[in-house]
Design brief:
324 residues; alpha/beta; Rossmann fold; six-stranded parallel sheet; three-stranded mixed sheet; 10 helices
């Protein structure tokens, strides 16, 4: 067993090789933009067509060739309630393989600093609100996305095991619901906010009189703009070291009904809003306790209404090329 020397987080070398796994995705693309603005000059990215992270041999060959010094693992198979509930094997298998391959290859090839990104769905369905980091593994998961959650929990445990066995200063962050440029706007595979944006934008353009949404509209959710998430990633890499995952969010939430109203206003939809109560609501509330993050000196800066307007504008400007 090789244990690294004692580590103290500090400003990262802007010339060091920095691999963003999933750099074309929602978080990865935002992180790429943020790092470029911050002066990083040696960013490394591969699309899924260039490098299949489920292919272990290919991943190890990639790390052997590129030898990244820093890594953010933002690549994952993701989706909303319908996708997670319909394809649990895919979400479990694909994410476990991606994580194992990247984390094992990173350790094998001497990555100094690594950030693993999970999801707030790792926490119990009925966790005390706001959800603290120590709520992990204290209760039953939300059944509609338990397979994805288990994969992400395994990733957290992998990071903690790496720290114990090898002493490497690798860390984990658990973002709340993310949105923004580069999101997936598929009507069947997207998360709630981009799905609402697409649904209401289409309704506004077609003059549709009513829009129907899943559930009762009563669940409460927290939303973080992806540009804020990117800034938080770099902040954690430069300011945090510890075995526990760090929650990343805003510390405030809204009901899905309130969210739908914000989206309708942002796109200019004037029709009626209906709720299909035969469809599942999911977890009743999911608000993260972000005191650990704020105590380290970082907090979100983009208000939800402003972020939604920006995302609607981006969606309309890129509608022919969005993931849909």
């Amino acid at each position: 067993m090789t244990v690294a020397a004692e580590f103290s987080p500090s400003k990262l070398d802007r010339t060091a090789s920095f691999y963003i796994a999933g750099h074309k995705g929602l978080v990865g693309s935002a992180l790429w933009r943020h790092l470029q603005r911050e002066g990083f000059s040696n960013l490394i990215g591969r699309s899924s067509s260039e490098l299949d992270l489920k292919n272990r041999e290919a991943v190890f060959d990639f790390f052997a060739t590129t030898k990244p010094r820093h890594v953010v693992l933002a690549a994952a198979k993701v989706g909303g309630i319908l996708a997670n509930n319909s394809y649990p094997v895919d979400f479990l298998s694909d994410n476990l393989r991606i994580q194992l391959n990247v984390l094992d290859a990173a350790r094998e090839h001497g990555v100094d600093r690594l950030l693993f990104l999970g999801s707030s769905c790792i926490y119990p369905k009925f966790a005390e609100q706001p959800i603290r980091e120590d709520s992990l593994l204290t209760g039953h998961l939300e059944p509609t996305n338990d397979a994805y959650a288990i994969a992400k929990i395994a990733g957290i445990m992998h990071i903690q095991a790496i720290r114990r066995q090898y002493g490497l200063p690798w860390i984990s962050a658990m973002p709340t619901n993310l949105y923004g440029p580069g999101d997936n706007f598929s009507p069947t595979g997207s998360h709630v906010l981009p799905a609402l944006i697409r649904r209401y934008d289409e309704a506004a353009k077609s003059g549709k009189e009513t829009v129907s949404n899943w559930g009762t509209g009563s669940p409460r959710r927290e939303f973080l703009h992806v540009d804020d998430m990117a800034a938080a990633c770099l902040h954690l890499l430069e300011n945090y070291d510890g075995p526990a995952q760090v929650n990343v969010g805003t510390g405030t939430d809204v009901t899905i009904r309130e969210l739908a109203g914000m989206v309708a206003e942002a796109v200019g939809y004037k029709g009626e809003i209906e709720w299909d109560v035969s469809k599942p609501d999911g977890t009743p509330r999911k608000l993260l306790d972000v005191s650990k993050l704020t105590s380290s000196g970082w907090s979100a800066s983009i208000p939800l209404e402003e972020g939604i307007r920006q995302t609607v504008s981006w969606y309309r400007d890129n509608i022919s090329a969005v993931r849909a």
